[in-house]
Each structure stands twice: as C-alpha cells, then as structure tokens.
Design brief:
The structure is a homotetramer.
Chain A lengths: L1 H14 L14 H7 L1 H26 L3 E2 L1 H15 L1 H11 L6 H27 L11 H24 L4 H15 L6 E2 L4
Helix pairs in contact in A: 1-3, 1-4, 3-5, 3-6, 3-8, 4-6, 5-6, 6-7, 6-8, 7-8
Chain lengths: ~200, ~200, ~200, ~200
C-alpha cells in the first residue's frame, strides 16, 4: 500500500507544474507576463508544501500500522483521491485569483480541497483509534488527543480560509499557506534501517 | 513486476485529474461553470475508485504467485494497457455526457474500457488456474469458481452498462459506479511484514 | 537505479494516453470521429507494447549486474531519455498519419525513435561485454553473440521501417509492430524471491 | 524518503517530453517544422541530463545518511520543489529562444531554475556538515571542502549563464549544458546489494 500511495502523492505533487503555463502573448514584455501569473507560483508552492506535509504525515501514520484491513484501504483511497484532486483546484485558483470575477469561488474551492484532505486524515485517524488491533503500539489517550487537536486545528484553519475567500481571496490563500507552515514543526526523526 | 505495475496504476489514477478542465468563460458565474462540468467529477470519482479496486485486486492476485512466466508478463502488460487507457475514456465520457450528441457512444466506450480491464483480469485468472505451478498455494475448486463468478458478475455489469448507454447514459454511469462499489467488500486483510 | 528506471518507464508508458485526444467537433457522429483517429490507438498500442518489452529487457539486463559504474549509469540515462521521447514521436505519427502531407516524415521519426532505443540497448550491452567484472556471471561467447544478433535484428527492422515510411507509412508502422511482436518470445521466467 | 524523492525526480524528468509540441501547421514541410523547434529538443536533453545528474547526486547524498531529521526532510522538499519546477522553465526557454522578444528573460529564468536546484543541494550539504550525527561516516575536512568547491563551481556556472542570457541566449544554454557535462565525471561506483 505504501508504494502505491507514495506513487500517487509523488505524481500529484509533480503534476502541479503542468498547471503553470508559458505566457503566450509574445509581444508583451516577458518579465511582466511572467510576473502577472504570480498566483500560479504561489499556488505551486502552497500546494507543493501541503502535499509534501501530507506525504510526511501519511508515512508516519502508516509506519505505526501492524495490519491493514479493507476499511483502511478504502479510507486511504479516499484520502489519495482528495490529494489527486489538488492539481485541479490549484489551477482553478491560479487562473481566477486575478480575474475580474470568480476569485472568491475559486479560492474557496482551493481551500475546500485542503479541508477534504484534512477530513480524510481524520477519518483514518478515528478509525485507527477505535481499532487498536491495527496499530503496532496503540497510542495512549494523551497522544490520541494531541493528534486529534492537531487535525482539528488544521480543519479550523481551512474552514476559516473558505470563509475568508469571500472577504479577501489573498488573505484566504495566506491562511492556507500558514496552516501548511504550522504543520511543519513536529517530531519526525526517522532512523534509517541499516542496509 | 509489481513495482512497474504499481507505478502504471498510480500514474493512471493520478492522470485522471488532468482531464478536469478549469472553466474558461471567465464572464460566467463560476459556481455554475463549475457545476456544469459535474460529469468530470463523477468520471474522476468512478474511474478513481475503479482503478483503486483494480490495484487492490492486482496486488492480491500477484501476491499469490510463486513464479512469473512470460505469458503472465504479457497478459499483465495487456491488463495495464487497458487501465492506462481509462483516463482517455473518462475524458471522452465527461466531455460528451451533457453534449447534444454522442453521449450514448461516449458512455458506451467508457463502460467498454472497464469491460476490457475485466477481460484482462479474467485472462490472467484463467491462465493461472490452468498453470497451478505458478501459484504459491493453488486455489481449490470452490475458490476458483467463486473468483470466476465474481469476475463474470463484473463483466455482466459492464455489458449491461454498455447497453444502457444507448437508453440512458446517466443510468449507464450509475451502473459502472455500482459495479465498482460491489467490488469493495472482500477479504483484504494484509499483515505487514515486520520491519 | 532500478527504482528510478522503473519509474521513468512506467511514466513514459502511461503518458502515452495523454496523446489521444477527445474529438472536439461535437456536431459530427462520434463513432466516426473516434474511428478517424485510429492512428492514435495504433500508436498507443505499438508504443505501449514496445516500452513494455523495453522494460522486460531492461529488467533482465540489470538483474545480471553485480556492480554499476558511472558509465553504465550514463548509458542508462541515455537509454531512458530515448524512451521518454517516445510519447512525443507517437503523438507526431498519430497526428500526421492521415494528414495530406508529412506522413512519411512523421512515420520515419516514429520508427527512428525506436531505433534510438535499440542503439541505447546495444551500447549498454557492448559496454557490459567488454567489462565482464560488472556482471554477476559473465555471459559466454555464444550467449553474447545470440544477444547481439537479437539486438541487430531489431535495429535492422527499424531501419527498414524508416525506409518504408517514404514508400508506405502504414507498412512502416506494421513493421514497427512486428519487430515488437518478434521480441515477445524469450526466456523470461522469474522466480519470485520468497517473502 | 528515497522512494518519494525517486518518484518525484522520475516524474519530473519524464514530464519534460510533454513540453515538446507536435507542429500544427500541417501545410508546411514537416522536416522544417520539426527543425524549427530545435530549442525544444535542446531543452529536453539539457534538462533531462541535469535532472539525471541531480538524481545520481541525490542518491549518493542520501546513501550517506544514517538518520533523517525534519530539517533534512524539508530541505529535501525544497530541493524537490525546485526540480519539479524545471519542466516549466524548460518549456518557457524552448518557446521563447527563437522568438523576436523575450529570449533573454526566458533563458535567464531557465538557468536560474538550475541555480535554485544547486542552492538546494548546498543547503542540504551545509546542514549535513554541521550535523555530523546524521551521517553514517562523517566526511573529513578535505572531502567536505572538495564537495563545496564542486557545488560552488556549478553555482558559478549557472550565475554566468544567467548573465550571458542577456548577451547571447544560445551561449547561455551552452553553458548550462557544459555545467551538466562537467558534473558527469565522478566516483559513482555502486555495489549492488547481494539479493
């Protein structure tokens, strides 16, 4: 399951670049043409870092599993589906952020796609906490609570970003970036298996 | 063989997102523009879940193999080819489902591509049952029969979907989704190798 | 090196589908519109099977290696580059095969890209035969000769296809397909490592 | 981490082909039409070889690690992000190299994306040298210096290429190619793990 999940995450993160388009109005000054599509670069960076964090968390989560049952497999498939959708919502946001209309909707959908991923993680987490036999070493109550709080904070951030999209789309994108940045600190020290 | 197959399946499932296009008529209301392309989302979800199930079944099948001969390799290549074709048929269905013409053909081709995959699985299964030396533990007669019945049900469903495409394309898509959903239950408990 | 090579081959083979376009003239009969782009399907199948065979041969070749030096790494990179180029030449052939002009050139380039891959394989093979210390079990003279003859036959076939492209493009494509088919038979029995 | 990194690098290198377009003016002579887009082929080759070298160096670097902490993970993510950006800058350069305007900017951005990757490598290297506990066998001072000199030479080359882009874009591309070529020699002998 990990090889397939790693594959889907690696592909989704790399496909993001296809949504950045080469400016076509060859008459204009290229610096300005490139500058005007800054939402594409911001979208690329925010989505790349977010999927990167998803990958780290995904890896951490599945390293704790001793067994995988079919519910986990399909919750995982839902999680991967929501991640695989991100290149589309990133392109949507990038194309509409500076448009005369639709920047609110596009940004809300963008933040919404991150919320979907956060829900996917919560679903997997909750299932694992209620099925302790799947874990190698069941988490204690304090650890579970700390994870769920972490999850919930992310969801709250993305909900706020969805609401803010209708006030100021730029602030909404900034919140999405901040949520990603907030997930960076953590305890991810992996010891390599001796080879 | 598994790394390559996993790669092809992971790429095919993730490429599905490239077939969802950002609405270009920036004058229109974006909610409506996004809503109008609901066939793209339905196609994304149905194809994603179907390829996800293909991956699970593929994994289960190849875990039972002790050896791989060249016939299996090429039957597998045919199976992967039919899966790699799905992003095209998904895009075709999504583009034509709400068109004034061609929704029957596009939907029939979509269901037909799933039928092709089902045939690929049957071909591999039948070959394995008649070459018991390839399996780790040969399946007994009851297990073989149960698998072939399962396979045949899927094929029957997709055949029905092809026919229904010419009556009502929406019902046809629904049948494709139901066949995928029907494959979800099963006995897929994998124990992780200790690491 | 194998994981990276497997990745490139799996991606190149799956990207082929992106070159098949959904017909856009929604007024026409969709069966006919789909039928008219049969060169895309033929190109997809021929290129898919060819890359599939490349993958099998690549795997066989590198399983025989005990060590990889930097020359092998870069010969391998050249080989992967020629394979990664195939989705472009396939699209070129498919777009021009039924055009009023350019079908000869497009088909010659298509066959030429397969010739490039065959050269890449020959380069790796010749290097390995002259550096026996890289192999696990050096091949004897008869085996080497048989491989080089096999390689040379493929190159002769693709050279013929390039020439035939200027006589009859359809025959040229057929020859490319036949060369691929001729590579299918072989001795590829892999025993799974016990797990 | 290596599976994910390998995946991203393999996908980025293979996506390069999507930036080569099939000529669409079917009236013109196809040889000439194909010839006119030589910047696409040069960009494909230079970027392919550069990403190939990145992969080799990346692999070498991470083989020396005993542990991975979260700073390494995120420096690595930044490195992968800069590599994943290369298909865009390659397409930009290829589209503008022969345009009447913008070839200087496009070429400078192209060389700049390689500089970004070089910075990513330097950041990882410097972090590892100052955190010797992450390495399996810490490098001695002479080795560190030799690596940093190597890194610095590459950065100097790319800086020169950025400057040259505003003098002569073709020379700038040639310098990018030469820097890649200069990285090819090295001591990359990997012994396969016995299997």
């Amino acid at each position: 399951m990990e090889a397939f999940s790693d594959g889907v995450l690696a592909i989704a993160i790399t496909l993001l670049v296809l949504e950045i388009h080469v400016p076509t109005d060859q008459g204009a000054d290229l610096w300005h043409a490139l500058g005007r599509q800054w939402p594409s670069y911001v979208g690329f960076v925010v989505s790349f870092v977010t999927i990167g964090i998803i990958w780290v968390n995904h890896h951490t989560l599945y390293q704790e599993l001793a067994r995988v049952d079919r519910t986990v497999l399909f919750l995982n498939l839902f999680l991967l589906m929501s991640v695989a959708f991100i290149p589309f919502t990133t392109a949507l946001m990038a194309d509409y952020l500076n448009a005369s209309q639709g920047q609110d909707v596009a940004t809300a959908v963008y933040a919404g796609s991150f919320l979907l991923v956060a829900w996917g993680f919560t679903a997997v987490n909750v299932y694992l906490y209620t099925h302790g036999d799947l874990a190698r070493t069941p988490l204690n109550k304090a650890e579970r609570r700390s994870r769920l709080v972490r999850n919930a904070s992310g969801q709250f951030g993305y909900l706020a970003a969805i609401g803010l999209a209708f006030v100021n789309a730029y602030v909404s994108i900034a919140v999405c970036g901040l949520v990603a940045a907030a997930y960076i600190p953590g305890r991810w020290t992996w010891r390599r298996a001796p080879s």
